[in-house]
Amino acid sequence: MRWDLLFDDxxxxxxxxxxxxxxxxxxxxxxxxxxxLTLRDRLRALAGGPEAVRLLLRGxxxxxxRPVSFGRDWMSAELVGHxxxxxxxxxxxAVTAILPGRDQLDRSLEPAAEASSAVADRIPxxxxxxxxARRRAPVAVSTDxxxxxxxxxxxxxxxxxxxLHEPGVARRDVDLQGYRIVALDAIRLVTFD
Length: 193
Known about the structure:
By secondary structure, the protein is of the alpha+beta class. It folds into two domains: about 1-35; about 40-190, SH3 type barrels (Roll), CATH 2.30.30. Helix content is about 30%, strand content about 35%. The protein contains four helices and ten strands. It has helices spanning about 1-35, 40-45, 100-110, 125-135, and strands at about 55, 60-70, 75-80, 85-90, 95-100, 140-145, 145-155, 160-165, 180-185, 185-190. It has a ten-stranded antiparallel β-sheet with strand order 5-1-2-3-4-10-6-7-8-9. Strand 3 (about 75-80) and strand 4 (about 85-90) form a beta hairpin. It is elongated and about 100 Å long.
């Protein structure tokens, strides 16, 4: 009878130690998963949510946007509360902070359902800007030094050529106010219709 109690007690202790070890392992795995999260991962987790994401960009620009798609180093989004251009491209390097609500904070930490292998995930910012240049879409380019409006003429590896003109005016030589070569690293936001 005493032996049965001893073995029961030893079995209980072994179960407790195994459960403690499994909890410690699960906590360590979660810490490792969190240590690998990127800003892009957290923004992607917020995409498709019910509310807009508030982003603080370099220079103190606050933007409210609904993320739509992601590339290697950029995010496209629909702007909320912006009068002139409902869509934008945000270089991820320009995002200095996400300003989430409590629900968004928790949702941004959720594990990804599965790793995306979409082609868009590998497309760089320059490729997206080249598409805007091909379409001759009028854009507003927010840089570290202010906002420029015009049409993207060319997109090179690390810079763009922007033909400057008033918003809402087609790119015609007679209406051009000049040209600006802008480093991609200086771009905070590109808005377009």
